[in-house]
């Protein structure tokens, strides 16, 4: 499963990049810099998915104490933090030429930064608590509470006056972009979701090996 | 108004972060597998 998923991920990324730079039209207002959107939007949607998976896995862990759920939550948060970082960096690099600033305390951007900090805290917490079971329990609580930030991020552009534009894809009405742009966005979203699944599988494989090594040391 | 430098920086940093994470995970997997194999063979 690992290798086929890796091949599919590579192909999906190649197709996504090809579409972003070769097929999607140049934006009439922003010019080519708008192509950062094909990285920025899939990155945050993948981060949402990663935190969503961690939320469900953490609930399942607290319910049954099965370490496999904890491993899934941990791996998902690690990869989710990575995609959140990419969202923040790519957003900043997109904001500078279009808004004239690298950073602004806008509700959408600030709550996204908060998501990054919460789940960085999750990873830090896991590394400082020595007992693996206690670490897993505390981390599960953080993962569940932290996920409440996702609806706040998503609706922040509706609830507050923000510089950030409203939702592009996840909205009740049809997208206002040209069809090739929407298709390119969806292709890149599929690619980043494949990459997320691939990285989580590899991270879980590492967690299994580390757990086995720990168990052997205790014998 | 094209700003190719910003575009390259965004995609380049993403590739570095994701590629670096994957590379480090694979290296740790190989090390852990080797350590376990050695321990089993003892």
Brief rundown of the structure:
The complex is a heterodimer of chains A (219) and B (42). In chain A, 78% of the residues lie in helices and 0% in strands.
Explained architecture:
The complex is a heterodimer of chains A (about 220) and B (about 40). Chain A is built from 7 helices and no strands. With about 220 residues, chain A is mainly α. Chain A has one domain. In chain A, α2 crosses α5, α2 packs parallel to α7 and α3 packs antiparallel against α4. Chain B is about 90% helix and about 0% strand. The longest helix of chain B has about 40 residues. The mean pLDDT of chain B is about 95. Classes of the chains: A mainly alpha (about 220), B mainly alpha (about 40). At the A-B interface, α2, α3 and α7 of A face α1 of B.
Radius of gyration of chain B: 18 Å
Which strand-content bin applies to the residues of chain A? under 5%
Extract low-pLDDT stretches of chain A: none
In angstroms, what is the radius of gyration of chain A?
A: 19 Å
**Secondary-structure element order of chain B, N to C:** H
Overall domain count of chain A: 1
Please state the overall shape of chain B, judged from the principal axes of the Cα atoms: rod-shaped
First and last CA, distance of chain B: 65 Å
Q: What can be said about the biggest beta sheet of chain B? A: none
> Termini distance of chain A?
32 Å
Helical residues, percent of chain A: over 70%
Order of helices and strands of chain A: HHHHHHH
Features:
heterodimer, A: 219 residues, mainly alpha, 7 helices, 0% strand, globular, B: 42 residues, 1 helix, rod-shaped
Question: Can you lay out the helices and strands and say which pair or pack?
Answer:
The complex is a heterodimer of chains A (219) and B (42).
Chain A (H helix, E strand, L loop, with lengths): L1 H22 L13 H28 L2 H33 L7 H22 L3 H15 L2 H11 L19 H40 L1
Helix pairs in contact in A: 1-7, 2-3, 2-5, 2-7, 3-4, 3-5, 3-7, 4-5, 4-6
Chain B lengths: L3 H38 L1
